[in-house]
Amino acid sequence: MKLQLPAARRAVFSRKREDATSGAPALTRGLAMVELMAQQPQGVTLSEVTSALKMSAASAFRIATALEELGYLRREEGTKKFFVTRKVLLLGQPQATSRSLVECAVESMRQVLTITGETTQLCCLAEDQCVVIDQLPSVHPFKYIVDLGSRAPVHCAAPGKAMLAFLPEDELAPLLTQLKLEKHTAHSITSRKGLRTELERIRKDGYAVDHGEHFDGIHCVAAPLLNQHDQAIAAITIAGPSSRIPAARFAEFGRVMIDAANEAARKFLE
């Protein structure tokens, strides 16, 4: 499969390359390289990078080596493939004065795992997607887990909807206008009116659910971490098979998630 950046990013990268004499070409290429690799959890070879970004092999090697030395990329010895590291992933998370969001949320996540036994994740918003920045795997042999950095459309993921519901209206309105409400399963919300109704329910109840909206048979329950203005900065969610997270227990699990999210937010903001 031929690797490439999304069309919009390719256009920007092309323009930047043309204007390199007036900017920072190495920085532009380095960021494009990180973006490309972030979309490929299976890793990317140097030749794939040079082909996708139309860079010389020498330039790609020099930039990749520098990013590896700085800890943003790692190279697998056997395959020689490059991968983005957790350091890149954590750049985008909210930061308190002395502790990261992950540090403040991990104890609450452990408590959720103990109570529910299900995979527990910490997520943040990245434009119109929900990004997993930390994860504690389920205690069950059959479990739902994803790679850190994995993204899901906000309209069909419980943590995404939990964060949307508590965005200020001046941020929420333009975001809803831009969203592509794609249908992933028969349960996916595909209308803006339906999503607005769902967000109103989430604000009322304090938690969000995903009853097989992204993947058939996978249910999620999430609650947002709120700041002093009751605006979402992140969300904690559980995810697992519908047989273990049935709709009949959504409210029960919702209370667990609200308590966990509130405690994590308190630690983050104190």
How would you characterize the overall build of this protein?
The protein has helices at residues 7-18, 25-38, 46-53, 57-69, 86-91, 101-116, 158-165, 169-178, 192-205, 250-269; strands at residues 73-75, 82-84, 119-126, 129-136, 151-153, 208-211, 218-226, 232-241. It has 270 residues and is α+β, with helices and mostly antiparallel strands. The chain has two domains: 7-90, Arc Repressor Mutant, subunit A; 92-269, GAF domain (Beta-Lactamase), CATH 3.30.450. It has a six-stranded antiparallel β-sheet, with helices on both faces. Helix 1 packs antiparallel against helix 2 (25-38) and helix 7 packs across helix 9. It starts with 6 loop residues before the first helix and ends with a helix. The model is unreliable at 6-22 (pLDDT under 50).
